[in-house]
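Private note to self, pasted from the team thread so I don't lose it. Backbone tokens:
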């Protein structure tokens, strides 16, 4: 028996009975099976039969229902009163606007921007709102027979007149298989015994037609023209789509009292959090990929966590409960994948894919509320240590804006979880959930969190795409992974709701770009990978070395390959309070200009700013001169940012006001709200035909003018080399040396030699020296390294490292490391 998840029996207190095979009669598996560090096998699971009485299904239904509505109304809790009154008002408005005439052609008019299939989801969403009001004590519609009739007649209308009958469809598959079924199932959970057995059977059979199991997916077809169901042959769903479908299958199993469906729903989600080494899913380093090559933790990853969380929380303490080992594996994935990627309750944009172009909620803090609630759901069934860790993290972020999280919950369950968290004095929530650096090598992302700021890098390679556009979303995301540096500090507005519709999409911070004009991306699901595989680095505590071989050859715009040929080597050497950026080998031809964007900051209109430099204060709209340092100076000290140029650079300082709407960058979730942003750009213009151009600068968050002048005088950064072959720096006082060697046959710098490409950080503390290194091309090679012979003893070496004392050579095996690092410690 193998020990991968797919071979496991998944439940405690039950055995897999005869006849419990998948409903399509086949064994569905991923292309490869990889063992998770925590292994699950049949011998570890209790083999015990269970009772399949109707009461068990009713208990599961009541548990699901209790997440949506309540038969209790606590008028002494203002947050509950607010929730109930808000729900009541929304339902009253919908009921008033609902077409109840016998010859109606719709329940509610088509909303602007909706396709025909999207309108189905919208109609069921509104019916669900009525059902929630019907089932929630305290609303004006609570247990109102007239409203119940309107809901039931509305469901009949959607099934018989609007074609949601389980037999035919049109348009976007998602609406028929995910959007509608999830709303429909929730309605049925709330209404329960209020519906006749015949009606319940009709409705669940209709849903089952579109969602026969969690593995099948329909083709997307033209809107408005009904055809017979057309499932994609030889295709198996993955990631968030799998968990969305599994939620519905679980609901159907409960409502139809079908144990096999419940088991199938639970079984089907296990391999979505089993570790993968390619394609969709979670990776060992916490990366999450969807659509094969897109970092998507914040969007599809959140959907996946919500789906898995729903299934595990519903089945918890029932005969269908999963084994503790499986649950623990999932929880550990969530911790690795999510906690380092959240700032002030928000998922970082670099892992949100095309959803960055969607109109956000009205306040910055709280945009990540979905993540907060999902983490609380996971905490419900997590092992005790992880439960405390997740609750502490969520409370830390929620404490930054409690009112938002208490008034913007998705459902009753979110509200109760949030109230309980704030009332729990044993959960303190006063510590940053993550501090340090983390490299997500499997999705070309990096994060640094300090006590005063957060930084993130978005890159791409032959493994990871530059961006995703699709459904007319993210139409100007062309350069969001060209080495984009996200720096969050106390300015409160950078990357917030006004940023994406107003920022210059050709000049995103940290990027080196060909600024030639591009068309808005409207082709179907555009993704472009690079020809380069050298993207990655190493992260050690609060220090890191990151590198990206930039190659724009093959870039497409609306399916057409562009004549872009920009190439270059980009490195970032990261310490607490300092980010050293080097660029070399910058070469290309363009009809526009090739530029490196030192920064592009959206200013907070409530703050005061000055741009200061070693050549004086800069007040002109456009100013060009050689500079040793620049300071974006704010009256809020922690919103100030310094920029030091070790070799002096010709830097353009541009002040501009920009306006825009989300409709311009996203037609699928349109918003006509006009945003205005005041920006300061700091640009290094390499010209239209650079050959081997370079740059060097240091980003210094939170520094003031006096400190920056001192920094420039002391020149703590020593650039050891900045070429297309090697980029390396040292900061002696910090005991830090960072090296990226680019050449296929390696190189030598600072007394360190390698015969292969390598990324390395050397950390000196007293007489101890730690060398942490990775093979960023992820080519499964063996590498030979020579270190300076300034030590007397090798203290530790990672597994897979051998030392030949006769030649003073370390041989390091990077087989299956996938960009992960190894360490040598000497003294």
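Design output:
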């Amino acid at each position: 028996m193998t020990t991968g998840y797919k071979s496991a029996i998944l439940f405690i207190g039950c055995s897999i009975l005869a006849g419990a095979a998948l409903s399509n009669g086949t064994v569905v598996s991923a292309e490869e099976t990889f063992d998770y560090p925590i292994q699950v096998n049949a011998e570890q699971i209790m083999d015990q039969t269970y009772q399949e009485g109707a009461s068990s299904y009713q208990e599961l239904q009541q548990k699901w229902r209790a997440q949506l509505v309540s038969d209790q109304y606590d008028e002494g809790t203002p947050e509950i009163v607010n929730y109930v009154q808000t729900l009541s008002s929304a339902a009253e408005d919908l009921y008033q606007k609902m077409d109840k005439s016998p010859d109606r052609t719709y329940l509610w008019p088509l909303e602007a921007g909706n396709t025909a299939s999207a309108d189905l989801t919208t109609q069921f969403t509104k019916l669900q709102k009525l059902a929630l009001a019907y089932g929630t004590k305290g609303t004006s519609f609570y247990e109102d027979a007239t409203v119940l009739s309107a809901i039931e007649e509305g469901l009949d209308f959607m099934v018989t007149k609007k074609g949601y009958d389980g037999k035919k469809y049109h348009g976007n598959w998602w609406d028929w298989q995910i959007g509608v079924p999830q709303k429909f199932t929730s309605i049925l959970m709330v209404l329960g015994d209020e519906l006749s057995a015949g009606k319940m059977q009709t409705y669940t059979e209709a849903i089952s037609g579109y969602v026969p199991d969690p593995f099948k997916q329909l083709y997307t077809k033209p809107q408005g023209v009904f055809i017979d169901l057309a499932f994609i042959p030889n295709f198996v769903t993955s990631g968030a789509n799998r968990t969305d479908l599994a939620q519905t299958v679980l609901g159907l199993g409960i409502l139809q009292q079908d144990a096999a469906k419940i088991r199938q729903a639970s079984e089907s989600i296990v391999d979505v959090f089993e570790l993968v080494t390619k394609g969709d899913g979670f990776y060992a380093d916490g990366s999450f990929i969807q659509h094969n090559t897109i970092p998507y933790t914040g969007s599809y990853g959140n959907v996946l966590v919500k789906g898995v969380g729903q299934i595990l929380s519903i089945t918890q303490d029932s005969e269908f409960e999963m084994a503790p080992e499986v649950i623990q594996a999932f929880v550990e994935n969530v911790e690795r994948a999510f906690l380092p990627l959240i700032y002030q309750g928000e998922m970082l944009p670099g892992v949100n894919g095309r959803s960055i172009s969607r109109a956000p909620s009205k306040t910055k803090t709280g945009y990540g509320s979905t993540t907060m609630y999902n983490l609380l759901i996971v905490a419900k069934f997590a092992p005790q240590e992880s439960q405390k860790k997740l609750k502490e993290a969520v409370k830390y972020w929620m404490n930054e804006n409690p009112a938002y999280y208490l008034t913007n919950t998705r459902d009753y369950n979110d509200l109760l979880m949030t109230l309980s968290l704030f009332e729990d004095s044993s959960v303190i929530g006063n510590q940053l959930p993550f501090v340090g650096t983390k490299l997500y090598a499997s999705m070309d992302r990096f994060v640094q969190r300090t006590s005063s700021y957060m930084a993130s890098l978005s890159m791409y390679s032959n493994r990871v795409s530059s961006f995703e556009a699709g459904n007319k979303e993210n139409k100007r995301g062309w350069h969001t992974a060209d080495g984009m540096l996200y720096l969050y500090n106390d300015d409160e507005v950078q990357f917030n709701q006004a940023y994406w519709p107003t920022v210059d999409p050709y000049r995103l911070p940290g990027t080196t770009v060909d600024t030639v004009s591009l068309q808005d991306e409207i082709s179907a699901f555009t993704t472009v990978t690079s020809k380069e595989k050298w993207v990655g680095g190493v992260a050690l505590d609060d220090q890191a070395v990151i590198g990206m071989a930039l190659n724009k050859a093959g870039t497409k715009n609306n399916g057409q390959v562009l004549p872009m040929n920009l190439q270059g080597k980009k490195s970032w050497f990261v310490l607490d309070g300092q980010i050293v950026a080097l660029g070399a080998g910058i070469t290309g031809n363009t009809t526009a200009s090739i530029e490196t964007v030192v920064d592009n900051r959206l200013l907070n209109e409530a703050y005061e700013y000055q741009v200061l430099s070693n050549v004086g204060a800069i007040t002109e709209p456009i100013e060009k001169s050689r500079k040793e340092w620049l300071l974006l100076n704010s009256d809020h000290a922690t919103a100030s940012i310094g920029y030091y140029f070790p070799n002096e650079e010709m830097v353009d300082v541009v002040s501009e006001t920009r306006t825009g709407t989300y409709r311009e960058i996203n037609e699928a979730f349109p918003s006509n709200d006009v945003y205005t942003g005041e920006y300061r750009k700091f640009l290094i213009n390499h010209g239209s035909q650079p050959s081997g151009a370079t740059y060097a600068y240091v980003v210094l968050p939170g520094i003031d003018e006096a400190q920056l002048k001192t920094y420039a005088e002391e020149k703590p950064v020593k650039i050891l080399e900045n070429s297309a072959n090697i980029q390396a720096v040292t900061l002696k006082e910090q005991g830090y040396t960072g090296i990226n060697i680019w050449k296929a046959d390696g190189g030598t710098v600072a007394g360190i030699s390698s015969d292969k490409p390598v990324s390395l950080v050397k950390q000196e503390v007293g007489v101890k020296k730690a060398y942490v290194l990775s093979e960023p091309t992820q080519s499964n090679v063996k590498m030979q390294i020579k270190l300076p012979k300034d030590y007397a003893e090798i203290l530790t070496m990672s597994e897979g490292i051998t030392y030949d004392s006769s030649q003073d050579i370390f041989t390091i095996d990077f087989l299956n490391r996938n960009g992960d690092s190894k360490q040598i410690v000497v003294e």
